[in-house]
Amino acid sequence: MATQNPPQISSEEYKEVLKTAFVQCYQTSNDAWSYEEAMREVPVYFLECIGSQKGHILDIGAGSGKDAEILLKEGHSVTGLDLYEHEAWQFLSYTWGDRINFVKSQFTDWQPSAETKFDAVFDNGCFHHQHPSLYFPYLTHLKTLLKPNGIAMLSVFTPLDENTDGSFIDFDEGRIGRSFSVNELQQLLTNHGFIWLDSRRIYRPWHEHYLPVHYLAALVKNQP
Fold first, then answer.
1. Helix (H, G, I), strand (E, B), or coil: what is residue 86?
2. Three-state secondary structure call for residue 219
3. Which DSSP symbol is given to 33?
4. Which end of the chain has fewer beta carbons closer than 10 Å to its terminal beta carbon, N or C?
5. Whole-angstrom Cα distance, residue 78 to residue 62?
6. How far apart are CA 112 and CA 146, in angstroms?
7. Which residue from 7, 29, 34 is spatially nearest to 131, judged by alpha carbons?
């Protein structure tokens, strides 16, 4: 699955491929990430980092809302964004009321009001599926939606060997992934104006249906 070659289609074409792939995964209950224990370690780390002060958090790639629910239980308000409207959204909205708001949209296409700013942004496995030409607009959009000094966490694929550079990953349904080393991700985020604070490798147990990668959760801060 690993390759050094970026996708050969345009970013607009790829956005449609990505949407079709994720809709199919959810509709056929092939969303293994929704039930993966390692994925749920990321919001726990995020909560450790942001401390006890409650705020409004943007959850990019909210999916079935499992991460959003973890954040809600700790007293935060959440806006969950995803390109697929998951059936779990209705139950979570009923349970948590006006503290949760779900939006169906691709992140780079979402244009809320100019006044919309978040205390923190959480991205658990969305950024690493983007077309490389969208890295800049994606991170710029994230930065625009984050308050000055706001905190963001991005969790991405990372190689099993932490001394190895990352690579592109081809999935059967046409979507791509990208693994990053700590140095690669730090350089990318700091070059886009974020202040690097911390990172943690999240280890995945071996499974025959899992990619041979771990996760890397990066904590950054917006400029004042």
1. coil
2. strand
3. G
4. C
5. 10
6. 12
7. 7
Sign of the torsion angle spanned by Cα atoms 97, 99, 100, 101: positive
**What is the C-alpha end-to-end distance of the chain, expressed in Å?**
40
Provide the CATH number for the domain around residue 105: 3.40.50.150
Q: In what order do the strands lie in the sheet with 168-170?
A: 2-3, 168-170, 176-178
Domain count along the chain:
1
Most distant CA atoms of the chain, gap in Å: 46
Q: Please state the length of the chain.
A: 224
Contact (CB, 8 A) for 101 and 80: yes
Question: Mind listing the pLDDT tens digit for each residue in 179-214?
Answer: 999 999 999 999 999 999 999 999 988 765 667 899
Q: Residue 211: its pLDDT value, please?
A: 78
Per-residue DSSP letters for 96-141?
HGGGEEEEES-GGG----TT--EEEEEEESSGGGS-GGGHHHHHHH
- Band of the pLDDT at 31, cuts 50, 70, 90? confident
User: At residue 28, what are phi and psi to the nearest 5 degrees?
Assistant: -105, 15
Angle of CA points 199, 116, 44, to nearest 5°: 30
Range of the domain at 49: 2-221
